[in-house]
Design goal:
Structural class: alpha+beta
Distance between the termini: 29 Å
Shape: elongated
Number of strands: 3
Strand order of the largest sheet: 1-2-3
Radius of gyration: 19 Å
Amino acid sequence: MRARRFTAPTFYMGALTRREEQQKAKEREHFRAEVFLREGGQQYNVVGYTKDQLIGDILDQYEKHLHFLYLLR
């Protein structure tokens, strides 16, 4: 898992100065805990998962990997 930083989009900032825009952008940042495998990001967020759910997700990913290896043989 990796923490990824995102900035919430704004469609109109009005007449803010550059410094004010940068400060507002920092205030709109949020993070997601995303799953990354060797093949890359899996594009889903695990924020809010319990410990048991995280363990289950890891085991599911491992089972998928074992199935993939089985198909290659």
